[in-house]
Specification:
By secondary structure, the protein is an alpha+beta fold. Helices cover about 40% and strands about 20% of the residues. It contains nine helices and ten strands. The radius of gyration is 18 Å and the shape is globular. The termini are close together.
């Protein structure tokens, strides 16, 4: 491929900045535009290391970074800033309600399937991640007509979870992410990991969007338009698990039967595998 998709490039750029952090200075000058997926990776790292200085390429990038990293949720905006998801059910319910209100304000016709996907991804974190922190952020791009949502946790990661459960020592991290998409779960009861595969079916195949999953060194990116699955264990490395999704917003989208589509799982055999 001549050029990486923007979701993959977001992952690569953020991972590069983290890998090159030194002397208490965090250099973000190579990033000219922040997408939610980029910020989802950077925010937990910045919170953990608290660098003395952060270098930006220009003032516009700096101002946007400060705005989306420090704002409260506001449904009049086109973005959901980096929000820490609470383990307290009541508090988390309030947070989710505000997030869903924002999405409803942006794109009413994809609200129900997107609500389902976010809820499933959030449940996966609670059930499988063994995490301390988890964050969500999103943005609506009216000119380009898409919504991007990113969710990240600092848990043990998909590869370790499945290696511990199945002794998959011969598989690399990206291969284990694929296993998770196919339905393998650390909790081996039937149906436990069905939500990830069904969420990707809705995002990629029903809504014709894009999805990136990254965990430890593994990365898998899916695009329905060209039926490609990009796979890598060398582009970057993160703690925990990241899911970044992009969904186009169309005014004439047909009504989607979410319960019916949630019973289906994405078929990875339809996608041409490309190693990057």
């Amino acid at each position: 491929m001549e050029e990486l998709p923007e979701l993959v490039n977001s992952y690569r750029q953020a991972s590069y900045c983290i890998d090159n952090y030194k002397d208490n200075i965090f250099d973000l000058s190579n990033i000219k535009f922040f997408y939610p997926t980029t910020l989802a990776i950077l925010y937990p790292f910045i919170e953990s290391i608290k660098p003395e200085d952060i270098i930006f390429s220009n003032n516009d990038v700096l101002q946007y970074f400060n705005t989306i990293m420090n704002s409260s949720i506001n449904i009049s905006k086109t973005f959901i800033p980096c929000v820490k998801l609470s383990k307290d059910k009541d508090e988390n319910s309030v947070i989710k309600s505000k997030i869903y209100d924002n999405i409803l304000n942006w794109a009413r016709n994809i609200y129900e399937p997107l609500e389902y996907v976010i809820s499933e991804l959030r449940d996966n974190i609670d059930e499988h991640a063994n995490h301390t922190n988890a964050y969500i952020l999103a943005q609506y791009y009216p000119m380009r007509r898409f919504v991007e949502v990113a969710i990240i946790d600092d848990g043990i990661g998909i590869p370790k979870s499945l290696r511990d459960a199945y002794n998959f020592d011969n598989l690399n991290d990206s291969e284990l992410i694929i296993k998770a998409i196919e339905g393998y779960s650390a909790k081996k009861e039937e149906g436990r990991a069905f939500g990830l595969g069904s969420s990707l079916h809705i995002v990629v195949e029903v809504l014709n969007g894009e999805a990136l999953l990254s965990s430890i060194k593994g990365m898998v990116y899916l695009n329905n338009n060209n039926k490609e699955m990009l796979v890598s264990d060398t582009i970057g490395c993160i703690k925990g698990t990241l899911v970044g999704i992009r969904i186009p917003v169309h005014d004439n989208i047909n009504s989607i039967n979410v319960p019916e589509e949630a019973d289906k799982r994405i078929d990875l055999n339809k996608y041409r595998v490309i190693y990057v």
